[in-house]
Amino acid sequence: MTTLHTLAATIAARKGADPETSWTAKLLSKGPEKCAEKFGEEAVEAIIEAVKGDRARLTAEAADVLYHLLVMLAARDVTLADVEAELARREGTSGIAEKAAR
Ligand SMILES: N=c1c2ncn([C@@H]3O[C@H](COP(=O)(O)OP(=O)(O)OP(=O)(O)O)[C@@H](O)[C@H]3O)c2ncn1[C@@H]1O[C@H](COP(=O)(O)O)[C@@H](O)[C@H]1O
């Protein structure tokens, strides 16, 4: 299992856990809107680090983004497997060709 899959499984297991002891459970208990807001904040922090060009800080912020993306997806019952299936569907289709076909 990849780290991302392990993390997604941990997040899924946190549904209904005690918000006093789990950050994930705390976020999920606040609802999908709050999870989405948190994801947005973390994405902006990653954008700032990408613009600044600090690799280590961007790496750390990217990890925050991936974690909060998985929490946001879990809040709407979308699994990592769902996202992977969509990515697999797109495999081999250039973004240039896809845009031209719209
Ligand atoms: N990967 C993470 C992870 N990444 C970030 N975070 C938490 O997300 C929170 C972000 O909150 P804040 O926005 O306040 O933090 P911040 O952006 O650094 O702070 P500010 O700059 O905004 O002040 C922090 O408490 C981080 O510790 C995470 N919390 C948990 N995980 C994983 O989820 C698992 C389950 O965690 P629990 O649900 O807490 O058991 C853990 O074992 C980890 O594997």
TrEMBL record:
Pfam families xrefs: PRA-PH
TM helices/strands, residue ranges: none
Location in the cell: Cytoplasm
Pathway: Amino-acid biosynthesis; L-histidine biosynthesis; L-histidine from 5-phospho-alpha-D-ribose 1-diphosphate: step 2/9
GO biological process: L-histidine biosynthetic process
Superkingdom of source: Bacteria
GO molecular function: ATP binding; phosphoribosyl-ATP diphosphatase activity
PANTHER family: HISTIDINE BIOSYNTHESIS BIFUNCTIONAL PROTEIN, HISTIDINE BIOSYNTHESIS BIFUNCTIONAL PROTEIN HISIE
Name used for this protein in its record: Phosphoribosyl-ATP pyrophosphatase
Origin species: Albidovulum denitrificans
Gene assigned in the entry: hisE
